[in-house]
Amino acid sequence: MRVDVVSIFPAYLDALDLSLPGRARRAGLLDLHVHDLRTWTHDRHRTVDDTPYGGGAGMVMKPGPWGEALDAVAPDGATLVVPTPSGRPFTQAVAADLATREHLVVACGRYEGIDQRVVDDASGRLEVLELSVGDYVLNGGEVAALVVVEAVVRLLPGFMGNADSLAEESHADGLLEYPVYTKPASWRGHDVPEVLLSGDHARIAAWRHDQSVRRTAERRPDLAHPAQALGAADLDGLL
Ligand code: ADE
């Protein structure tokens, strides 16, 4: 997969050389290019923003540099991701969809956002997804771009050594992941649940599923109703 990220703070994206995306780059699964938006300015001050039409606080990113940047780095057929707090929610399902694309271009806005005509213009030739990583406001799209790229890249075929760990983690099946434990079996007076030491794989699987359902009901009642996944006997105390 090729990923191009455009930002006025390209150094933010240095983190993608570390850890999992770094591994994917070295393995040849990810061809990542980070660009400075100011490359596509033509004035002495390399201006990327201006005051908003209609008034109001803050500055808006000018369409000119963005138009030229996307002409240069986003060929027809690429998918354009624009992180914005006013976007559609970025979920595991969206990450899985993006992981099937050959070429993602991420446009990181700053200030009050990018002139809307940039997205309108790009929509004529690219699929454009305006995505929010959560219901809070960051200073710009760079941290959201890190979130999107990391969540997508770890789903690329051949990326994770162990496909089971993808299947079992939170959100893979609409449920949060069950609690996990490692050695020692007793620590500061807290014991690992007995079932996990039993060697009985069916019982362990049933316990983990039950824990996932309980966690999801308690912490994320907004997710698909976990009672659907429960046997009637499990429902006591949850509903
Ligand atoms: N830019 C600023 N806040 C954001 C958010 N919550 N999601 C995506 N992009 C953003």
Automatic annotation (TrEMBL):
GO terms for biological process: tRNA N1-guanine methylation. Keywords: Cytoplasm, Methyltransferase, S-adenosyl-L-methionine, Transferase, tRNA processing. S-adenosyl-L-methionine binds at residues 109, 133-138. Transmembrane segments: none annotated. Signal peptide: none annotated. GO terms for cellular component: cytosol. Belongs to the RNA methyltransferase TrmD family. Specifically methylates guanosine-37 in various tRNAs. This is tRNA (guanine-N(1)-)-methyltransferase. The lineage of its organism: Bacteria, Bacillati, Actinomycetota, Actinomycetes, Propionibacteriales. The gene is trmD. The chain holds residues 1 to 239 of 394 of the full protein.
